Amino acid sequence: MSVIEIKNLNKDYGNNKGIFDISFKIEKGEVFGFLGPNGAGKTTTIRHLLGFIIPPIDTCIIEGLDCSKDIAEIQKKIGYIPGEINLMDNITGMQFIKFMAEYRGMKDLGRAEEIINRFDLNPHGKIKKMSKGMKQKVGLAVAFMHDPDVLILDEPTSGLDPLMQNKFVDLINEEKKRGKTILMSSHMFEEVEKTCNRVGIIRQGKMVSIDDIDALQNTKQKIYIITFKNIEDVHKFKNEQFSFRKIKDNIVEVIIKNEINELIRCLEKYDLINLDIVHQSLEEIFMQFYGGIVMFNKALFKLEWKSNYKILIIFGLILTMYTTVMLTMYDPKLGTALETFAETMPEIMAMIGMSRTPTNLIDFLSTYLYGLIMIVFPLIFGVLLSLRLIVKKVDNGVMSYLLSSGVERKSVWFTQMLVIITNVFILIGYCTILGIVLSEMMFPGKLDIGAYVTINVGTLILQLTLSGICYMCSCIFNEYRLAALFGSGIPIIFIMIQMLSNMQGSIEWLKYVTLLTLFDPVRLIAGNSEGYIMLGILSIVAFVCYILGLVVFNKKSMSL
């Protein structure tokens, strides 16, 4: 029978906070590592085992006793270290240890004195004057002094220096040999891999996996920092068949899984200054072991929105102004004036896509608003945003922090892509709603809303495609000026070619070399299937651009 068993335990605090369907067993004599970042749900789970939070009946069991009703009996059998040590401040450490012994009905303090000596604890000072590490040692003495068969330790080495952490590891291994059952939570992988038989990983309140420690160690990657004597060797080494995390000047970070012997043999060919190893963060280990990559990074997404929302507001205001002005221009007399102007300067009007004579409100908007304005201004917005999200961070060195914090390049690419897509979607969506509302206020019933929405869907696809081109350039180039040159230059060339082809004559064929031809409001208004097919082609182009950006960004070397 398992000594500790948790079955389908839930505690929902709302907003995706809490623990959800937690289940695991710990056998007698086993040290079980309960691993997860701060806030993952480790302490909440432990509080249920201790009866601090009353669990549902038959969900938390310790030595056959139900934690929902037998907690007093259970607590006699266990030793516990809380995640946050809070002791009685106005007494000494020794007075507290003696009090806890008497409270438990103990008379023999031999085990407590052993722990005191092992961890070099001076228990005679006032607790309120003790450091966090000293208080942690008092907590260790109290947890182990009654020689319990079951130990529940929540972040037990918090506040301890490296020497004391090593002594703690020795203590746990000794207790394991004595047949004690131990549940130990931690956010330090190195700590649990030296002591535990199995490890359960919890993330965002859910058990990600439960596995033998040997299995985790066998799949764990290591990152070596290699400092070469000269830069020429760095260029040669880049062609070796290894995975590179970062390259800067003569320093290369290489990711090694099972190729350590190959790496050593390879390095014999080069002159080195230094070779070091990087201790991986818990997040990096999570990404290697379970699911590889967390594609969406919420913290980065929130930061980018906070950094760029003002640009969205500015362009929203600009398009509000133009939409309002254009709608006030919808007047039969003004329409006649525009016709006269078009007859006077046909080439200019044709060049900017305003050669058609509108017969109704939807024709008017598609000609005078979506012929140029709703192409150019959202394009400028998409270009600015795309350049800020990737290449600017590479060029100014900020990307080095993003990629050295346990977040994969694919996650950065995906999150920043979502920032672009959501911003462009909100901008075009806002303009759609604005146009409908203003039209109904000024010209009730005159606007074909279905056709207007269709035009805006086409505009959205076009802008995502143009932004995709710029985002691809932002991912390809390391220098902001080059990414800006190509990322903005290509769409601008498309616009210029479109304007020239609109003049018709011998250069009308130019429309076949610009993507803007694939956005045809006239066909979309008419419900022509060719218009939808062209939007489908645009969507494919957008997808290809974003994926090409990923492929290059994931593999390229960056001067960080």
Q: Could you explain how this protein is built, in words?
A:
This protein has helices at about 40-50, 70-75, 95-105, 110-120, 130-145, 160-175, 190-195, 215-220, 230-235, 260-265, 280-290, 300-330, 330-345, 345-350, 360-370, 375-390, 390-395, 400-405, 410-440, 450-475, 480-500, 520-525, 530-555; strands at about 5-15, 15-25, 30-35, 60, 65, 80, 150-155, 180-185, 200-205, 205-210, 220-230, 245-250, 250-255, 270-280. The chain is of the alpha/beta class and about 550 residues long. It folds into three domains: about 5-210, P-loop containing nucleotide triphosphate hydrolases (Rossmann fold, 3-Layer(aba) Sandwich); about 220-290, Alpha-Beta Plaits (2-Layer Sandwich); about 300-325 and about 370-555. Strands 6-7-8-3-9-10 form a six-stranded mixed β-sheet, with helices on both faces. A four-stranded antiparallel β-sheet has the order 2-1-4-5, covered by helices on one side. Strands 12-13-11-14 form a four-stranded antiparallel β-sheet. Strand 7 (about 150-155), helix 6 (about 160-175) and strand 8 form a beta-alpha-beta unit. Helix 3 packs parallel to helix 5 and helix 12 runs antiparallel to helix 16. It starts with a strand and ends in a 5-residue tail after the last helix. The mean pLDDT is about 85.
Which features would summarize this protein structure in a list?
about 550 residues, alpha/beta, Rossmann fold, Alpha-Beta Plaits, 3 domains, 6-stranded mixed β-sheet, 23 helices, about 15% strand, elongated
